[in-house]
Amino acid sequence: MAKEVTGSGRRPEQIEMMRAADADRQQIADQLKGALDEGRLSLHEYDDRVAAAYAARTYAELLVIVQDLPRPGISAAEVHARRAAEERRESSRLPTAMVVLWTIWASVVAVNLVVYALVRATVNDYVYPWPAWMLVPGAGLAAVTVGVQVIRRQRRRY
User: Fold this and answer.
1) In DSSP terms, which residues pair with 104 in a beta bridge?
2) Can you say whether the dihedral through the CA atoms of 94, 96, 101, 102 is positive or negative?
3) How far is CA 98 from CA 26, 52, 90, 112, in A?
């Protein structure tokens, strides 16, 4: 519908306020017919929406008519599969607190490595490799991260 107009450098809110053509109204009516055939709309609701589609003047008025309907050709199983995939992605994502802790740890390790490299370059004697001690909090943080992910996966199953 508004796809042909979007390339003209207009913002989406400007496009929605543009006047709709007969072809746009027909496209919405076809989408409504598909929703009726799939059982997403009752016959009465279909009649009301088609009348509103043919009475619509702008793209915004047309978009409101079909905003609660999935795109044509999407089945309920596909919608459920997408929702389940999104839930899996969300549960596998690290919590913000863990991301912050990993960022702090990585920053401290980076500073330690830079300081160690500078000291090593300027001192002619043996320099104790103190940045190796940063592996201890890193291992603890890794254990906590794994524990958090395991708990989140268990919660998702129930």
Assistant:
1) none
2) positive
3) 51, 50, 14, 21
